[in-house]
Amino acid sequence: xxxxxxxxxxxxxxxxxxxxxxxxxxxxxxxxxxxxxxxxxxxxxxxxxxxxxxxxxxxxxxxxxxxxxxxxxxxxxxxxxxxxxxxxxxxxxxxxxxxxxxxxxxxxxxxxxxxxxxxxxxxxxxxxxxxxxxxxxxxxxxxxxxxxxxxxxxxxxxxxxxxxxxxxxxxxxxxxxxxxxxxxxxxxxxxxxxxxxxxxxxxxxxxxxxxxxxxxxxxxxxxxxxxxxxxxxxxxxxxxxxxxxxxxxxxxxxxxxxxxxxxxxxxxxxxxxxxxxxxxxxxxxxxxxxxxxxxxxxxxxxxxxxxxxxxxxxxxxxxxxxxxxxxxxxxxxxxxxxxxxxxxxxxxxxxxxxxxxxxxxxxxxxxxxxxxxxxxxxxxxxxxxxxxxxxxxxxxxxxxxxxxxxxxxxxxxxxxxxxxxxxxxxxxxxxxxxxxxxxxxxxxxxxxxxxxxxxxxxxxxxxxxxxxxxxxxxxxxxxxxxxxxxxxx
Length: 489
Hints:
Blueprint: E1 7-12, H1 16-25, E2 30-35, H2 43-49, E3 51-57, H3 58-65, H4 69-72, E4 80-83, H5 90-98, E5 103-105, H6 111-162, H7 168-180, E6 185-193, E7 200-207, H8 216-231, E8 234-242, E9 259-266, E10 269-278, H9 286-317, H10 327-343, E11 348-355, H11 358-365, H12 367-384, E12 390-395, E13 398-404, H13 408-424, E14 427-429, E15 432-434, E16 438-444, H14 452-468, E17 474-475
Helix pairs in contact: 6-7, 6-9, 7-9, 11-12
């Protein structure tokens, strides 16, 4: 029985003398439980006692044979010994063997026969346990192999999806979806910053909560604090993008105990961090920790490549001196804006502006002073214009500004404010004040068939008119706003 060192035997319908002899012979290793004839132990009793052998008298067997097999089939898995008592026929002996009895003992029942049966039973029992042990070991090895295959499959899938895009938000979106198949991840946030040794950081934040969500600020504080802790530096400026999340709004709050912050590191350099929000208190097993570490290595490499690509693309799209967009990027952007505004019949305006007498600045103060003026003017334009407006260096001292969703009259007012702002601004180079004015030409999208080149040509004509009429003016192709003076509108 369970909880003892002895193996259990069942005796079914045994004569008292036979039961006593079997119990006596097997006493050191076995315990006999005798059941009266007509009793059939059920599967629950068999599970409880775990008998290793069943001794059955012929009388009990004759009774069992009359029962449905469904009521006795659980006994078929136990080694069974039939005790033939008195007279018997050869047909009965053959029938017993056909019914799966391991032994059939003819009378008289002797000690030597019992010992022989019990010895083979012990051998069978030991063999069974050896087989069960090996089976368990094989199952365990198979389970470990399946787990390793699952881990490998996850890493392959994770790496494959992480390298599908060069957009950090898309990479993080894929990582969030993959991690949610393995861990109870409710949401993810991340922060990345440019490598370097400066005092402050310029960072990019990626958050599951949208701008209006109450958890938004909590995520920002969490990521900014994680960045400062990992880098030892303050975050000076940051931008923020949203990662789409399937979770309900109430499940996005980064509660203590449910968040893990993991560093993003490549080649020994930390350049970011990922925050994982669990649906419940975060308790990870050893395997989960190892998988997470491996996933973070792949994610860090994918994000680093995406940041380098973004940096290279930004450098390719920006003017190196003024850090506004260059001519090539402007041409592409203007085409996109004209197509979009024409499709939806939205207003669009374009400004072309030029620094008045720029050659005299270079001749009088030197080319470095000219570069300073260009850089300061570009910075002034960026700070004065709306975030939706687009500034580019068109060439030399000329800048172009795309004004989406802007009517001609509103564009004219904005251009005049720019002209006045520049005229009143103090441009300095090596403690020398350099007075600057600008001339601006304006054009607007008027027809669905109008091309980007048409807008540029009209703005150029207006700019030429402004210069021809004395500079420091804002003009359309056919007239100027301030023909005689530069008074504000």
